[in-house]
Amino acid sequence: MLAQATSIVDSTFSNFWLVLIVKAAVVVGFFLVAPMMVGYAEHKTLAHMQSRLGPMEAGKFHGWAQLVADGVKFIQKEDIIPKAADPVVFTMAPAVAMIPYIVLFVVIPFGPTIWALNLDVGVFFALAITGVSVIGVLMAGWASANKFSLIGAIRAAAQLIAYELPLILATAAIVMQVGSMSMVDIVEAQGEPLFTGLGDILPAWNIFYPWQALGFIIFMTAALAELTRPPFDMPVADSEIIFGAYTEYTGLKFAFFLLAEYGGIVALSALASILYLGGYEGIAGIPIPPPIWMLAKIGALSFFIIWLRATYPRLREDQLQRFAWVVLIPLALALVLVTAVIKVL
Amino acid sequence: MTDETNGRPEGDGGSSFKPGFGLLKGLGVTLKHALKPAITQQYPHEKPDLPPRTRGVIALKEANCTVCYMCSRECPDWCIYIDAHKESHEPASGGKSRSVKILDKFDIDFALCMYCGICVEVCPFDALFWSPEFEYAEYEIAGLYHDKEKLEEWTTGVLPPPALEEGAEPEPEPEVDEHGGAEASAAPIPSVSAPVIVAAPASAPAPPTALAPEAAAVPPPASAPAPHVEPDQETHDRVLAEELAKGTDARVAEGKAKRAAMMAARKKAGL
């Protein structure tokens, strides 16, 4: 196990506080930049999939500065708190929804020595922290004193309960196979060639094991539901409940929820890359530095999530629940069973 | 995924159920569209590709107007303002003087206009037309009030009327009268290339071409209308071939070709 490796920040600076500040700055910086890029990619991808061009004016070149302009607009908006709302909870909710996704990036490794924290229980930490985000949504829904907000929040919570289970079970199968909860260990375990003697081209990424490929599908489905992204976006179903828990939010608070959503896409894409696509490990023979591999995988998975939004209509609430409990959870349990049997054999 | 039929591809009779096939097909459709060029026209940067007979604005061919007030009376919004006075004109060949109505004012308030086109429909002498011009937005609502000089400008770009259908009664030849159009009121108005009918000076004898006879009696308007030009056949054929090659509908292609031909001819004539 390589859990004793030190990160590049630790080996460069020796002062504890300096290391802390640098790490925090890098993590927050990444969190602010990456979701903006995913958001812009979503604008453009959706547009082109609908034979449109999307933003073309802001920043002159293909509207690259559209989200910057949006951010400026959000700052200028009036900050409205409904009269009946609970102002304290209402104000705290966006932060509670957003911070877990920032914290999640602390344990994501971007290279053999590029990470903020290599926790022994990294995967456990990541899954636990993503679950906190829904509390922010619940707070928002309850504090808004609006029936649509409340229904949206309850839907989000019910969805999280239903889909957290297959998410955790699929992850558990990976943890069992690798034998470690450390993100760095899981990535390093996928660095070897899958078959020795066949040119050593195919790396031992978990997705190349047939049963873990099923796990990947379960994980991505559950991740979509956890992010409340289409086709699992009933908590914000605008044709039924306006915008769910975010109905009463304006300006910067609303922007924080959006940031949490796109940050969540990046976070769960990163998690899926680490668990299934070999994280920063590349394919042998292609000279690309590890962080670029990691970013490319995150980008590809984010694109996939956007692609699904462009393609599928929203499911009904009961279909969503039924799909989780009747299909995904039994499948995930079977996956754990199969993984355990193969591990022992 | 509530029941067993969900997710099945439709139309294959259900005999060959391929799980997830419909989902993949959907992804294929969106990807295919993403790879095709977008159909967006970047409007202020590039001009929109409008049909040649787009109803953008109402244009006035003043020479054809007989001040009959039908348009202003039929207008549901009362947005057409007409003023005129009578003048007596001596025919060049002598004889009884004729009273002629002279158009002093023909304004349309496009802030009121609802673009119903009733005025264009009702005009008995083809003086009002739909013009494809549409870029006349204003910062102040008063700016949408346009006079007859502005309406005249918009007649450029108006297509000649479509050809008569096959088997239709041929258009009657206008009776050219040597006596300065004494029978003008009885003669039907030729509508071929109506927007470019020329108004001859009142004193000149009627030209031998197929002009509207009553035109001889009408004095030239303040802004001289564009003289008659024949459409440029070469341009017509080229544009028509281009449009048909692009797969444009034959009717639309024909219209576009006609418009291009007229534009080219006017350009050639130095207008």
Write the layout of secondary structure elements.
The complex is a heterodimer of chains A (345) and B (271).
Chain A: H1 8-12, H2 16-49, H3 66-76, H4 87-104, H5 122-143, H6 147-178, H7 183-189, H8 210-226, H9 238-241, H10 251-276, H11 290-311, H12 317-344
Helix pairs in contact in A: 2-10, 2-11, 3-10, 4-5, 4-10, 5-6, 6-8, 6-12, 8-10, 8-12, 10-11
Chain B: H1 21-35, E1 57-60, H2 70-74, E2 80-89, E3 98-109, H3 118-122, E4 128-131, E5 145-146, H4 148-153, H5 233-245, H6 250-268
Antiparallel strand pairs in B: 1-4, 2-3, 3-5
Structure explained in plain terms:
The complex is a heterodimer of chains A (345) and B (271). With 345 residues, chain A is an all-alpha fold. Chain A has twelve helices and no strands. Chain A is globular. The mean pLDDT of chain A is 85. In chain B, the strands form two sheets. Chain B has a three-stranded antiparallel β-sheet. The longest helix of chain B has 19 residues, at 250-268. Chain B starts with 20 loop residues before the first helix and ends with a helix. Classes of the chains: A mainly alpha (345), B alpha+beta (271). The interface between A and B is medium-sized, with 22 and 16 residues.
